[in-house]
Design brief:
The chain has 2 domains: about 130 residues, Beta Barrel (Lyase, Ornithine Decarboxylase, Chain A, domain 1); about 230 residues, TIM Barrel (Alpha-Beta Barrel). Helix 4 links the parallel strand 3 and strand 4. The protein is about 30% helix and about 25% strand. It is globular. By secondary structure, it is of the alpha/beta class. Helix 3 crosses helix 4. The protein has 12 helices and 18 strands. The mean pLDDT is about 95. The strands form 2 sheets. Strands 1, 11, 12, 13, 14, 15, 16, 17 and 18 form a 9-stranded mixed sheet that branches. The protein binds ligand LLP. Ligand LLP binds next to helix 10 and helix 11.
Length: about 400
């Protein structure tokens, strides 16, 4: 790790292909070969990771036209992808219809005319799954809970019957399944079971709700340990759901993001120094909230370990970055071995929602990313240059007098 940091600089994201593929295999074992795994691109949309996921036989869960463009830029087929999103735009729908995907996850009535028009223009019936909002509590952070009726996602069960009928009336649309996504970082099996029960009860309400239905997309959200608890028991989820799905002839679709890439990545950062203030010992590092936003945004806890030999004595510190906000911390009140300027620290389980949520706040360049495959480490994203930071603000020759 120290050699990677020396070569590519810090802050640096480092990913392990073996860890990613290992997780994919665990899901295959749990859900069976017939299940369709769609990696949630938003968790980490690096083109090289997308290529690795495709090479291992998985499809993708998309939520924007930009993510579709990433698949195309990575040179991977879109046919095995599903497309969710609470406010899809016409151009995104048209682009995905043209590219050809497995199905759209429809989140409201307003999408139906857009989907039908795109289908008619392309001379094809558009396959849709209805994203139901089963009003199930996922027991996760409020910002990443999506399956409660007060959330903006999906269609409430009491309105979904009318939407199914509207789809059935539309010649350019074909209902192929149901979708739920309850939230992210779930650690309990029960919400998945409760959601399927509500969906089957809904489907049993009328024949038209079952006709042509071949897929059940149970969403993602599979939680990982983060060093502070158990990961979700994916075998238990599969065992609880598969008998019902088999009985109905519904192919399972899963949309894991974090579960595949979270533990496969770390963020390596350099210690810049220390500062004592009040009762707190601050360790100042070169990674900040713009590089890894999760602690600031969700009070998320990521384990941090020294890279290389650690001093025998530990003390309680706040690990903070250079950004001008008190919310800029990677860890608070954490016991860490004594470290010196120049030492490297690794923030663990940073592969998901780290690089993909990074920003340029404080005019900081987003980190470089490296993918380790066996004994080879490849640079899969260069560190941004300062020129890139302001490229869109110079040489502007357009004026407008409204
Ligand atoms: N499917 C849909 C429709 C989603 O909205 C999401 C995540 C996933 C699948 C994948 O969820 P996962 O398996 O990764 O939990 N930035 C937050 C997480 C936001 C998740 C948004 N949707 C975080 O850093 O915790």
């Amino acid at each position: 790790m120290a050699r990677l940091a020396e070569r590519f600089g810090t802050p640096l994201y480092v990913y392990s292909r073996a860890a990613l593929l290992g997780r994919l295999q665990r899901l295959r074992t749990a859900f069976g070969a017939a299940a369709h795994i769609c990696y949630a691109v938003k968790a980490n949309s690096n083109l090289s990771l997308l290529a690795a996921v495709h090479a291992a036989g998985a499809g993708f869960d998309l939520v924007s036209g930009g993510e579709l463009r990433r698949l195309q830029a990575a040179g991977v087929p879109t046919a095995g992808s599903v497309f969710a999103g609470v406010a899809k735009e016409a151009w995104e729908i048209e682009a995905a219809v043209r590219a050809g995907i497995l199905f759209f996850n429809v989140e409201s009535e307003r999408e139906l005319p857009l989907l039908a028009a795109a289908g008619a223009a392309a001379g094809q019936r558009v396959r849709v799954a209805l994203r139901l909002n089963p009003d199930v509590d996922a027991g996760t952070h409020a910002y990443i809970s999506t399956g409660k009726k007060e959330n903006k996602f999906g269609i409430a069960l009491d309105r979904a019957g009318a939407v199914v009928e509207a789809i059935a009336r539309e010649r350019s649309l074909q209902l192929v399944g149901y979708h739920v996504h309850l939230g992210s970082q779930l650690r309990q099996v029960d919400p998945y079971v409760a959601a399927l029960q509500r969906v089957t009860a809904f489907a049993d309400g009328a024949a038209v709700r079952r006709e042509g239905v071949t897929h059940y997309d149970l969403g993602g959200g599979f939680g990982i340990g983060y060093g502070t608890g158990d990961a979700l028991d994916v075998d238990a989820v599969a065992q609880a759901l598969l008998p019902t799905l088999r009985e109905r002839g519904w192919t399972p679709v899963v949309e894991p993001g974090r579960y595949l890439v979270g533990d496969a990545g770390i963020l390596v950062t350099t210690v810049l120094g220390e500062k004592h203030q009040g009762a707190t010992e601050f360790v100042l590092v070169d990674a900040a909230m713009n590089d890894l936003m999760r602690p600031a945004l969700y009070q998320a806890v990521h384990a941090i370990v020294p890279v290389g030999p650690a001093a025998p004595t530990e003390r309680t510190v706040d690990v903070v970055g250079p950004v001008c906000e008190t919310g800029d911390f990677l860890a608070r009140g954490r016991s860490l071995p004594q470290c010196r300027t120049g030492d490297l620290l690794a923030v663990l389980a940073a592969g998901a929602y780290g690089a993909s949520m990074a920003s340029n706040y404080n005019s900081r360049r987003r980190p470089a990313e490296v993918l380790v495959s066996g004994a080879t480490a490849s640079l899969v994203r260069r560190r941004e240059s300062f020129e890139q930071l302001f490229a869109n603000e110079v040489d502007l020759h357009e004026t407008f007098h409204p």
